[in-house]
Design a protein that fits this description.
The structure holds two protein chains of two kinds. Chain A is mostly beta strands. Chain A is globular and about 40 Å long. By secondary structure, chain B is mainly β. Chain B is built from no helices and nine strands. In chain B, the strands form two sheets. In chain B, strands 1-9-8-3-4 form a five-stranded mixed beta sheet, with no helix packed on it. The chains are: A mainly beta, B mainly beta.
Chain lengths: 117, 113
Amino acid sequence: DTGVSQNPRHKITKRGQNVTFRCDPISEHNRLYWYRQTLGQGPEFLTYFQNEAQLEKSRLLSDRFSAERPKGSFSTLEIQRTEQGDSAMYLCASSSGGSADSNQPQHFGDGTRLSIL
Amino acid sequence: DAKTTQPNSMESNEEEPVHLPCNHSTISGTDYIHWYRQLPSQGPEYVIHGLTSNVNNRMASLAIAEDRKSSTLILHRATLRDAAVYYCILRLHSGAGSYQLTFGKGTKLSVIP
């Protein structure tokens, strides 16, 4: 178990630029989640994949955000035309489990911290 | 969605037990009680979960009230490494919305040497 890996750990960019983050889940996990966390708050759910299918998106995921998991393994989260309010920690998590039981623990990476200048 | 209420912060002396409370008076019969913690500069880490019965694992114990409207996470001997924000979360067992974790602000635990 090598854990969930996220890259880069930090990203600084100018407002209006596009950014892409990568998440490598634990290899046997079929579920993958993205969350966003701002300072002093708990993480907020963004989206969820089961294998390569994106099954749910939060209302927080505006049309500037897109997430993919093309082969059911790693995932990318892209933010287009970044805004100041996008500054946050972006966390990825993965878990195992079928549709009948959603209580498998989620294993989180250490996140990508995005700073918008 | 059923919500949880936790104290903003708590302090504990090192090597003493810690009882972290969580109120969830609107819990439904199919909600599981999960606890995660987040150490500084790290992602959240699963601690424990349960439905009705008390649960123990290598990290902690979870005591669930008989009416399930509250629960307590018990760290048997606090260490400096236990200083973190602890989140109490309700999860549906299955179905729509069961896959996401809904975090509140949690309880920030400080451990005093």
